[in-house]
Structure prediction request, 595 residues.
Amino acid sequence: MTAPPETGFAGAIHNTRRAGLVVVQPRMGFAEPSAMRAGLVAVRDARATTVGTITLDSYTRVGDLHSARTAVRTRTRLNGYPLCTHPDDTTRSMLSEVYRPGFPIQIRHGSARPRHIIEAMARIGLDATEGGPVSYCLPYGRTPLRSAVNEWSAACDRLAEMSTPERPAHLESFGGCMLGQMCPPSLLVAIAVLEGLFFAQHRVPSISLSYAQQTQPEQDLEALAALRRLIGELLPDLDVHVVLYTYMGVFPRTRAGSSALLDESARIAVFGGAERLIVKTVMESVRIPDVADNVAAVERAEREVRCSQQMRAAGRHPWAPSESGLYEEARTMIDTVRSLDPDLGIALHIAFRRGLLDIPYCLHPDTQGRTRSRVGPDGRLEWAHVGSLPIDGPRPAGHAVGAQELTSMLNYVADRFDSTVAVR
Amino acid sequence: MTLRRLHVLVTGTSSDAHTWNLMYLQLALEEAGHEVTNLGPCVPDDLLTETCVRLRPDTLVISSVNGHGHTDAARAAAVVRHDPRHDAMPIIVGGLLGTAGNPNADHAPALRAAGVTAVLEKDDLPKLMRLLAETRAAAPAPATATATAAATAAAAATAATAAGRELEGAR
Prediction:
């Protein structure tokens, strides 16, 4: 393993890891530069070990810069920061004295065609973002996978080119969050690792692989262990860390329920060995969270992280990881895809076309759409139909999941946390 | 009386990446006996208009939850309405249409001005089902299973017009 970088996004993670902490990060973006700056300052000054986030607006994400410009000009509310629309100098002054070595900032966007965003980052001097040819394409739109692979190849090359040994660019795979919920963990792990291998193929010097909290902590711990093992086996020479997302699906409606879910994610991060945690707020089910919501969330997560670390130091473990063969399932899918073509971009495209990778309930035209998943009786997320995936599992002939069942599964976590706290 | 199946076109808006709302609507509408074409998320305006022309759906359902729905759905409705062939097709918009957490009704006047027939509040599936049931009940079932495509299209147009009036009355 190369020497860990000292600065930039990767450096901050290493410094925090040395201190035995988990970096906590919000998901936050505001259209107005003053509001964005205020949000970043508030996160930096929060009582937690944080990094900053600038989430871009949806128009910038899909490359509709005309609509982004119109919205800025007419002061129409946008759901994020229009990085490619505000003049670069406006962004530079928004960041001045905030974006410093001790407080790195990640650009989050969700774009299948991210080159305009990467170029803006390069001009401004921002060095960390997230995405991937699969994870930023299939769940989010209709961009052909082949085109997303080409675009992300170019984006990765540009990130590699921007990098210096002192200041490596950082790219996080969003592969562990496919569709936010209902994707079985073995497939999440496989896609995250495959995207990591794709980034490595394009010489991105510093990467992170994600995993989103699902329906059962024991299963999440098994997934995180599998992810870490696969990183050790397949990406041994790269700077890689693991990032956990607080549940990305339908959020509890009660404040107590959403707080308990956030707490559980912080415990999973600690006991699963994640270096970074991306949080949600208690207002998630109600509206787009504001700065105070985000500060409250990172501070709450930090308290729970410290509390869990004390538990761990005392040898107390809240959950035993399940042993369901999750690593083997993920490894089989990864090996199958890698055998299709030496170029991972081509291999990914072939895999989705043949259904060797297939995300349940994904509407993208370039997927087979044959797999289905369900929340099992014990609360684990499991396969209801494995389609053409190269793994063992159910392949029922009839219709598997209806609207009512889908709703109750989508709400399973929210209901569990809302009802648990109601009983207390 | 045998009710005619409605063909419902379900779509997200141009900037909205969310899909669970669309997947849920598809399953629920199919279970209610409708035929669904699901365009998925991030549908550009030209794909939407082209699909409306090609498939001539009985109803267009636009679902958006990313906060841009109040502008994106208005623009989408306006471009669909630009073609007079879709005059009679109800356009129903729902989800979470603004970023401020206020009711969708706040955005209804602008959406209606752009050609939207009905604006539903978040999660108001019962109202969507009611509106579709009215459209369906107003549609006479084809006399025989071998009804010509022209007759089916005419029936659909009549049904849609009737539903349009119903919806007008409901405002």
